[in-house]
From TrEMBL:
PANTHER family: PEPTIDYLPROLYL ISOMERASE. Residues 1-70, 382-444 are annotated as: Disordered. This is peptidylprolyl isomerase. Signal peptide: none annotated. Keywords: Isomerase, Repeat, Rotamase, TPR repeat. TPR repeats lie at residues 266-299, 300-333. The gene is PLEST002713. Its EC number is 5.2.1.8. It is an enzyme of class 5 (isomerase). Residues 95-192 form the PPIase FKBP-type domain.
């Protein structure tokens, strides 16, 4: 019996294994059959998620922006649809504290991630800063609040996640997935103005966003002064804005915070350069443009304004380089093209002036020099005695030689008077033939060049001598001033040593 039971058990186990294997085979077959219809299942899930989003969102909240939306940002990353107009046309000032209520939805699912009336311990409105861009999250909501009026209700669409919670999202409260597009239903309750004071000494206790906002507000105030033509007051406001972005503050920043601070600093330096071009302070304008180019070497405004300042300082070749670099970045900018044409015209004028200068120094000799040389040569020729090659002179010489030969019979014994007479009657030595006209012209040309170079060289030597005399006078006036304290100190020390020696000598006695 036991054996029979064992055999039955074995048979049953084998049958169960066969059933399991067949079941596995059916499961695998089922998986293979489901493969071709996987895309249909994915589309079905996507349609289901869209239907769920439509069911989660209120009926008056479209999750996609309508066509009649207003662009809050130039890149249309933030759009606004007005649901109910406000009480007046007044809008909050820059960085005003706005009191709002809002409900935030995820555009992908319609899920509410924040409701300021129910998700907080208090029912008071939440505070956002109008126009704040220094924050790392919800900058789109702050920009939209700056465009709203008191009592206005609007839908704000964050189409670019960079204006929402960015690529990282938020894993705390409120929970927002990365790279999420958002929809806000916003109601503007009221706002509080910014109290501006002249005391800017408490900047060390300010938060990062507050420092950047104060710098931005002072830059905006400087822009208003610039529009009114009050350039000195505008520069004062810009300098005050830079005081909030000093080196100690910038050294502590990195990443997102450094980028935001540098963006404000670039605007301030560019505004200062534009103002200094108006006042004629071209050297400082070049410095401010250089500060911008240290941060962004391809900034078109900085290259253009630095090139314009260098052109005003007659540094035309450097100005041409800056303007050509700016034109490569912005090839259709009319101001850059016009300024570059002006610089090239200035370069052409400078080259022509340089050619004229060298032509005046090393040019053709004056006509007076060759005429004088020719007149001198003619006078010398006229004063010269006849040459021995003439026939008359030869006949006279022969006659005198014959006479001398016939009268002189012995050794020459003549008195001194006869020797002098004979020397006077002797013909002069033969002179070399005159130079050719070609050599004479070359000599005259060199003389003319020397005459033309004499005046500039004399002026140059006079300038150098005057400069040396001026430097010597300055050194003569300065040297005693900085030497006198040393001499006086040495004299005082010698006097003290002398008194100390006398006192020691007196005590020893």
């Amino acid at each position: 019996m036991a054996g029979a039971e064992d055999s039955v058990a074995v048979d049953q186990s084998d049958h169960n294994e066969d059933v399991r294997i067949e079941a596995d085979g059916n499961e695998s077959a089922g998986i293979e059959e489901a493969g071709p219809s996987g895309g249909d299942a994915g589309e079905g899930r996507q349609q289901a998620s869209e239907e769920d989003a439509a069911q989660n969102a209120p009926p008056h909240i479209p999750l996609s922006p309508p066509e009649d939306c207003i662009a809050v940002t130039p890149d249309r990353g933030v759009l606004k649809k007005v649901l109910e107009a406000g009480e007046s046309d007044d809008k909050p000032s820059l960085h005003a504290r706005c009191l709002i209520h809002y409900v935030g939805y995820l555009a992908s699912s319609g899920e509410v991630f924040m409701n300021t009336r129910t998700d907080r311990e208090t029912e008071d409105p939440t505070v956002v800063v109008a126009g704040r861009t220094a924050a790392s999250q919800e900058t789109g909501l702050c920009l939209a609040a700056a465009s709203m009026t008191r009592g206005e209700r609007a839908l704000v669409y964050i189409c670019d996640p960079a204006y929402g919670y960015g690529a990282l999202g938020s894993f705390s409260f409120p929970a927002v997935p990365p790279n999420s597009q958002l929809v806000y239903e916003v109601e503007m309750i009221n706002w509080e103005g910014i109290e501006e004071t002249d005391n800017d000494r408490d900047r060390g206790s300010l938060l990062f966003e507050e420092r950047l906002e104060r710098a931005e507000r002072r830059r905006e105030a400087g822009n208003e002064q610039f529009k009114e033509g009050r350039y000195k007051e505008a520069l004062a406001k810009y300098a005050l804005a830079l005081s909030y972005l000093d080196e100690d503050f910038m050294y502590q920043l990195e990443g997102h915070y450094l980028d935001k601070a540098e963006a404000v600093k670039v605007k301030v330096h560019l505004n200062m350069a534009a103002t200094q071009l108006k006042t004629g302070d071209y050297g400082t304008a070049i410095y401010n443009c250089g500060q911008v180019l240290n941060i962004n070497p391809n900034d078109v405004k900085a290259l253009f304004r630095r090139g314009k300042a260098k052109h005003a300082l007659l540094r035309t070749e450097e100005a041409q380089q800056d303007l050509e670099a700016a034109l490569k970045i912005s090839p259709k900018d009319r101001e850059i093209i016009a300024e570059l044409h002006a610089v090239r015209a200035s370069l052409k004028t400078e080259k022509e002036a340089s050619k004229g200068l060298y032509k005046g120094i090393l040019g053709k000799p004056s006509p007076a020099a060759p005429a004088a040389a020719t007149a001198g040569a003619e006078a010398a020729t006229a004063a010269a005695p006849p040459s021995s090659s003439s026939p008359a002179a030869g006949a006279d010489l022969g006659a005198s030689a014959t006479t001398t030969t016939t009268t002189t019979t012995g050794p020459e014994k003549r008195p001194p008077a006869s020797r002098a007479a004979t020397a006077a009657a002797a013909p002069p030595a033969a002179r070399p033939p005159p130079r050719s006209d070609k050599k004479r012209g070359k000599r005259d040309g060199l003389a003319g060049i020397g005459d033309s170079l004499a005046a500039p060289l004399t002026r140059l030597l006079g300038l150098l001598l005057g400069a040396l005399l001026w430097v010597g006078a300055r050194m003569w006036a300065v040297v005693p001033k900085w030497q006198s304290p040393t001499v006086a100190a040495a004299a005082a020390a010698a006097a003290r040593r002398k008194r100390a020696g006398q006192q020691r000598l007196a005590r020893s006695r």
